[in-house]
Each structure stands twice: as C-alpha cells, then as structure tokens.
C-alpha cells in the first residue's frame, strides 16, 4: 500500500491519500480524541500523541497536530497507523455513520436554502475537499448564511478569507438574498 501525502493551507494539518475509499458517503470530523472513539482508524491516529484532530473524506484522511509537535516526528507513525488499519480489515467507522445536523431556516426560505446548498455541494465542497476539509451548512436567517469549516479548513489561517472573499462573494453573486456569511463553532 502506497499512501501519498499533501500539504494543506493549514500548516498544522496534512492530507493523507491511502489510494482507496475511506468513507463511502459524507465526512467524519473528530476534533479531539474523545470524539474519535467510534472509529478504529481515528483511535489509532490519536494514539500517536501530539495529534489534535482527525478528519475523513471520501478518499482522504487529514490529521492536525499540536504546535509543539514536528511533522518529521509523527508523519511516519501516521503513515504506519493508516496502513496498519487498512490491512487489518477493520471498518473505518463502528456503528452508525455520522449524521448531519438539521440546518436552521424559516419555511419561507426553503427555496433560497436549496440554492445555497446546491452551490455549496457543486462549487464549494469539492474545492474545500482538495485542501483536506469540508464545509457544512448550518442555517440561513435574515440574509446571513451560517457555515462550519471542518478538517484542514478548521483553524486554517486563510479560512476567514475563504469564507468572506470566496464563499460569500459566490453566494451573493448567485443569490441576491444572501447578505453575509458567518462561521459557526462546533
């Protein structure tokens, strides 16, 4: 098994491409070791030490380290943990797959929300996935779109610029009712 790695815009996060499917559908975000307990793969990676976050996409794993840890010290162990997991035959996730939260919006805004989610799914999410992350829609209220950055994009120095200059401008261009985009926390 050959696992490729890619840098991300977030210097604390690396993207690992194992050359096979990680998740069949959706994404899974583990911002701390406790949240990773339902995933044998996340548990292996968190067991390395110095790891603060793990994120799964369709065909990639992104790993975030703490400031005191150097990639040169943990990257070989992460590669080993990913390889060992896929060779073990264990599932990536135990039990039910992670479900998305229901987004908040008024029933009158359903058409606008449909347009927003369509643009996010077709234009934004593929680009964000290239950087080892994901973005989820959390609501639309009085012209404000609430989004959450995940994976490599959470805590990335350029995430605010991505939200404001990229996503906000895109949504405002296609949907005049959108006035602003704001990030939400966990």
From TrEMBL:
UniProt domain Scaffold protein Nfu/NifU N-terminal: residue ranges: 3-89
Any one Pfam family match given in the protein's UniProt record, by short name: Nfu_N
SMART domains: Nfu_N
Domain of life, source organism: Bacteria
Gene Ontology molecular function: iron ion binding; iron-sulfur cluster binding
InterPro entries, sorted: FSCA_dom_sf, Nfu/NifU_N, Nfu/NifU_N_sf, NFU1-like, NIF_FeS_clus_asmbl_NifU_C
Any single GO BP term: iron-sulfur cluster assembly
Entry's family note: Belongs to the NifU family.
Name of the protein described by the UniProt record: Fe/S biogenesis protein NfuA
């Amino acid at each position: 098994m050959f696992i490729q790695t890619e840098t991300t815009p977030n210097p604390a996060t690396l993207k690992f491409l194992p050359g096979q499917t990680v998740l069949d559908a959706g994404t899974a975000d583990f911002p701390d070791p406790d949240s990773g307990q339902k995933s044998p793969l996340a548990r292996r990676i968190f067991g390395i030490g110095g790891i603060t976050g793990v994120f799964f996409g369709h065909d990639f794993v992104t790993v975030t380290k703490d400031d005191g840890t150097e990639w040169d010290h943990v990257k070989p162990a992460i590669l080993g943990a990913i390889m060992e997991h896929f060779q073990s035959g264990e599932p990536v996730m135990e039990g039910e797959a992670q479900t998305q939260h229901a987004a908040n919006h008024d029933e009158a805004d359903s058409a606008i929300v449909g347009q927003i989610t369509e643009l996010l799914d077709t234009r934004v999410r593929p680009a964000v996935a290239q950087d080892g992350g994901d973005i989820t829609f959390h609501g639309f209220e009085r012209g404000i779109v609430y989004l959450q950055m995940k994976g490599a994009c959470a805590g990335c120095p350029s995430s605010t610029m991505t939200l404001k200059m990229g996503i906000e401008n895109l949504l405002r261009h296609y949907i005049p009712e959108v006035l602003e985009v704001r990030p939400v926390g966990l």
